[in-house]
């Protein structure tokens, strides 16, 4: 039997459709439309020292994600922020990961579900970052995935929609089975896209290069890192990035709410491979990031 604590049976409270309810009572029906059709949207947000980091940007994207997949959230961004604050308070959390999620209800299980009720829940829990666990400079190893990110005209790629994460699950499982930490996905043209859940950034001298987010979710954490880099006098560029260019980079790291900044030390795939050290520029950005979140930069 696994000793992993399941997410459906924990202590604490979850905000569900406007009220705090016991964690193990925050449930939905098996005939819920978004369970069948993958239409849930969600966010991943961090709280540091009790403050919700970059909340305005996250809730703006949450609202936009719902609009892209065809529905309107029944709560304003301010109401959702207050709900997050209530969840942190009720669960006595200061440093936490926060997961707002919205979905279509059980009024329909056909493809069309315009009259389905829109539900929203917010949970928060203690999920230490690599930095909090002393692993901020522990590099990760990537396997090149056979899965590709779809074009923006074939999927709602600008939405943080649950249905799109199946690709990441399949790619991550395959990479883990081969002993890698994560997978790197390409776009339909064979250029670098992202990992299964984070954006990737190359260091070329004093310049940061990131693949343009034209078929995957643009990272809010990346935008914050870019702002920190700009203040430090670094050059920034977003464009198509080839595998060959990635392999030739001086340093490589990934960014995302769950992991903040984490170096990449290896990429391996059919007929391709590269290794990098955890370089000084990546280390400097990690330090700057930690300082910025504790100072609670403007949202």
TrEMBL record:
Residue runs in coiled coils: none
GO biological process entries? isoleucine biosynthetic process; L-leucine biosynthetic process; L-valine biosynthetic process
EC number per UniProt: 2.6.1.42
- Please list the reactions this protein catalyses: L-isoleucine + 2-oxoglutarate = (S)-3-methyl-2-oxopentanoate + L-glutamate; L-leucine + 2-oxoglutarate = 4-methyl-2-oxopentanoate + L-glutamate; L-valine + 2-oxoglutarate = 3-methyl-2-oxobutanoate + L-glutamate
Q: Which SUPFAM superfamilies match?
A: D-aminoacid aminotransferase-like PLP-dependent enzymes (SSF56752)
Q: Does the keyword Iron-sulfur apply?
A: no
According to UniProt, this protein's pathway is: Amino-acid biosynthesis; L-valine biosynthesis; L-valine from pyruvate: step 4/4; Amino-acid biosynthesis; L-isoleucine biosynthesis; L-isoleucine from 2-oxobutanoate: step 4/4; Amino-acid biosynthesis; L-leucine biosynthesis; L-leucine from 3-methyl-2-oxobutanoate: step 4/4
Q: Where is the signal peptide?
A: none
Q: Does the keyword Signal apply?
A: no
Give the matching InterPro entries.
Answer: Aminotrans_IV, Aminotransferase-like, B_amino_transI, BCAT-like_C, BCAT-like_N, Class-IV_PLP-Dep_Aminotrnsfr
Question: A GO molecular function for this record?
Answer: L-leucine-2-oxoglutarate transaminase activity
Keywords (alphabetical) are: Amino-acid biosynthesis, Aminotransferase, Branched-chain amino acid biosynthesis, Pyridoxal phosphate, Transferase
What is this protein's function per UniProt?
Acts on leucine, isoleucine and valine.
- Protein name as it appears in the record: Branched-chain-amino-acid aminotransferase
Organism expressing this protein natively: Starkeya nomas
């Amino acid at each position: 039997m696994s000793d992993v604590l399941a997410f459906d049976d924990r202590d604490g409270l979850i905000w569900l459709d406007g009220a705090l309810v016991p964690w193990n009572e925050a449930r939905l029906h098996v005939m819920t439309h978004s369970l069948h059709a993958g239409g849930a949207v969600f966010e991943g947000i961090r709280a540091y020292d009790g403050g919700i980091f970059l909340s305005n940007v996250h809730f703006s994207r949450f609202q936009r994600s719902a609009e892209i997949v065809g529905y309107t959230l029944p709560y304003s961004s301010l109401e959702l922020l207050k709900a997050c604050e209530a969840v942190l308070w009720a669960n006595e959390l200061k440093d936490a990961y926060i997961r707002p999620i919205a979905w279509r209800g059980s009024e329909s299980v056909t493809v069309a579900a315009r009259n389905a009720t829109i539900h929203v829940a917010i949970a928060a829990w203690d999920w230490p970052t690599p930095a909090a666990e002393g692993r901020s400079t522990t590099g990760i190893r990537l396997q090149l995935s056979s899965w590709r990110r779809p074009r923006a005209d074939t999927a709602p790629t600008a939405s943080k929609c649950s249905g799109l994460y199946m690709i990441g699950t399949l790619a991550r499982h395959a990479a883990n089975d081969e002993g890698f930490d994560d997978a790197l996905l390409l776009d339909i043209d064979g250029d670098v896209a992202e990992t299964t859940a984070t954006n990737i950034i190359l260091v070329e001298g004093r310049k940061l290069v990131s693949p343009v987010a034209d078929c995957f979710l643009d990272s809010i954490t990346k935008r914050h890192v870019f702002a920190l880099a700009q203040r430090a006098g670094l050059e920034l560029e977003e464009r198509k990035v080839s595998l060959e260019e990635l392999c030739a980079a001086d340093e490589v790291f990934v960014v995302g709410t769950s992991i903040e900044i984490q170096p990449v030390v290896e990429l391996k795939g059919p007929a391709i491979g590269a290794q990098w050290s955890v370089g000084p520029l990546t280390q400097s950005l990690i330090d700057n990031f930690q300082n910025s979140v504790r100072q609670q930069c403007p949202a």
